[in-house]
Design a protein that fits this description.
tRNA-DUS-like, eight-stranded parallel beta sheet, five-stranded mixed beta sheet, 458 residues, TIM Barrel, oxidoreductase, 16 strands, tRNA dihydrouridine synthase activity, Double Stranded RNA Binding Domain, 3 domains, flavoprotein, tRNA binding
């Protein structure tokens, strides 16, 4: 069992919105950061996510119902990454913490951000006005998860109030308290955690800052955002080299192009109007970002490697054992039915029905539910008293049923008829086509005899 993360005498990458995604965290660790924080993630959004082991990227993804990856991490940072959440509810905070605790080194509660997206609903700096809730959230987390719990606060109007709150927080059993230095919670433009904006511009400034403040550890925000190599004890690297390394991580882990562009523009700072800066700002894809830095060959090589890994994982007969999970007595996978991946007129439901007939089983049955908040659908198929469904919600009942059929077929190692697997699925495909032709003839006879068609679809 890995040792618990210590917050004594460390230098950390502070949590920063849009900056603290996986590429930046890995880069900071490469340059010498002891601990890295992810950007603040709101509990209401995270509680809807499901955990997915992404075998192509070799990451763990927490995916929202709309398929957005809210949080992505990997083995390289597992013992160093702190998951920061925005929350105002102890129970919901615990639910989110338990969702991610096996993949992170610690859980942090943001009690310092003064911006509306964080304070809305009583989160962020708004919590500082409700010490009882602060204590309730932290006690619930400390007693409910196996990893250390920390929090980040702001300086209150008086030193006495700040110390009183800190002592109360300390009694909850948290592993560390981070203080956003130099600004009160009402301030809309606060200094960075650790004072990096004015006081920490080189690695040598970190020790001086610790000695001046008496703090055990230091977080770096803007100074790290502008040049993550500030964590290097040997000194800053040329910014262009740092951006190249950042982009390599962004490509390797399929970071969203707009997020990568944002981070690169922060590093460029006053050079965003340069030739390079204008190309970065104009980029809409990871390929265009790569071209701006002369890395188009690396982009193509990375894409080829990822495609090869994806093809190997989805090759005929491959069973997704490492992404199969159990939800009670239901076998689940995180997948969606993509119609373009299957030949016209043939679907996974047809393949599953034909397989069941050949096995002399009762035909599959589907139970579908609709979610109120976004009217999305999720279906569970039952085959021989065993249940299967996709953990992702679909835009239609039809697609939800097809997704559950895919989960069943892949779990059982049965051909599903995807384009590219025709040879593997051909005998079953031919049987389905024969049955469909026979069904069409039967319908025609029914119309001839009754004057009305006998409708039905799969």
């Amino acid at each position: 069992m890995a040792a618990r993360l210590s917050f004594a005498n460390i230098t950390a990458l502070a949590p920063m919105v849009r900056v603290g995604t996986l590429p930046m965290r890995l880069l900071a660790l490469d340059y010498g950061a002891d601990v890295v924080y992810c950007e603040e993630l709101i509990d209401i959004k995270m509680v809807q996510c499901h955990r997915v082991e992404n075998e192509v990227l070799q990451t763990v993804d927490f995916v929202a119902p709309d398929d957005r990856v809210m949080f992505r991490t990997c083995e390289k940072e597992k013992q160093k990454v702190v998951f920061q959440m925005g929350t105002a509810d102890p129970e919901r905070a615990l639910t989110v913490a338990r969702l991610v605790e096996k993949d992170v080194a610690a859980i942090d509660v943001n009690m310092g951000c003064p911006k509306e997206y964080s304070t809305k609903g009583g989160m962020g700096a708004a919590l500082l006005s409700d010490p009882d809730k602060v204590e309730a959230i932290l006690r619930k987390l400390v007693s409910g998860v196996s990893v250390p719990v920390t929090c980040k606060i702001r300086i209150l109007p008086s030193l006495e109030d700040t110390l009183s709150l800190a002592r109360r927080i300390e009694k909850t059993g948290v592993a560390a308290i981070a203080v956003k230095q130099g600004s009160e919670k009402e301030s809309r433009v606060g200094n960075c955690t650790g004072g990096s904006l004015d006081l920490v511009k080189t690695h040598g400034d970190i020790r001086a800052f610790k000695e001046a403040t008496g703090a055990s550890s230091v977080m770096l925000a803007r100074a790290a955002m502008w040049n993550p190599s500030i964590f290097r004890s040997a000194g800053l690297l040329p910014l262009h080299d740092v951006m190249i390394q950042y982009l390599k991580y962004a490509l390797r882990y399929d970071n969203h192009a707009f997020n990568s562009k944002y981070c690169l523009c922060q590093m460029l700072r006053d050079k965003v109007e340069s030739v390079l800066g204008k190309r970065v700002q104009a980029a809409q894809t990871n390929l265009e970002l790569s071209e701006a830095y002369g890395l188009e060959d690396l982009f193509k090589e990375t894409q080829t490697q990822l495609e090869a890994r994806r093809d190997a994982l989805l090759s005929p007969g491959w069973r997704q054992d490492n992404v199969i999970t159990m939800d009670g007595d239901v076998t689940t996978m995180a997948l969606k039915f993509q119609r373009r991946e299957y030949p016209p007129q043939l679907t996974p439901k047809m393949f599953l029905l034909e397989w069941s007939r050949r096995q002399k089983m009762e035909q599959p049955t589907y139970q579908t539910v609709q979610r109120a908040q976004d009217r999305a659908f999720q279906s569970t198929v039952t085959v021989q008293d065993r249940k299967y469904r996709s953990s992702l919600w679909s835009k239609s009942k039809k697609f939800a049923e097809q997704a559950s059929a895919v989960v069943c077929l892949r779990s059982l190692g049965i051909p599903e008829g995807r384009i590219g697997t025709e040879n593997d699925a051909w005998p079953q495909k031919r049987k389905i086509e024969d049955n469909r032709n026979a069904e069409e003839k039967r319908k025609k006879r029914t119309v001839d005899a009754d004057g009305e068609p006998d409708t039905g679809s799969l």
